[in-house]
Amino acid sequence: MMVKLIQLSIIVTYFLVFAIGCNSSIPSGEYNKITSFSENKPIKFPDFELIFTGERKDTSIFPNGNKFTFTYYVFKLKNDNKVDSVAWTSGTGVIGPIYFEFGGSKFSIELKYWEKEKKKLDEDEFVITKM
Fold it and tell me: CA-CA distance, 76 to 86, in Å (whole number)?
């Protein structure tokens, strides 16, 4: 009897470890909270799913001949009805939120620095605010 109970306990333990380890649910993000991101890993917010698709660099040449290369952090937004994207950049060095609309609501995304909390963000962190 004791041996069967131990065997059953082992089987249940392996099942639970396997089930938890294979959980493929999308992590949740909250508005007005620091959220970590990585490339091609979706994060589910209440109004949309957001996926960091990578960085892109664009070089602009100004009339005076000066060149600036801008790094854009590109995010894909999607819900059941729509797919769109938003790109954040510090541009010429002014670090602030980028405002966007999606699904009839207004939001902002902040990287590098969270203005409301006066807090520096790590390279893999952002804050989404619903306006």
Answer: 7
Q: What share of the chain is helix, strand, coil (3-state, %, to 5)?
A: 15, 45, 40
Contacts of 10 (CB under 8 A, 6+ apart): none
Under a CB-based contact definition with an 8 Å cutoff, are residues 127 and 88 in contact? no
6: how many CB neighbours lie within 10 A of its CB? 10
Q: Which amino acid type is present at position 99? A: Y
Q: What percent of the chain has pLDDT over 90?
A: 71
pLDDT for 15 beyond 70: no
Mean pLDDT of 75-94: 90
Instruction: Single out the residue of 12, 78, 81, 88 nearest to residue 43, CA to CA.
Output: 78
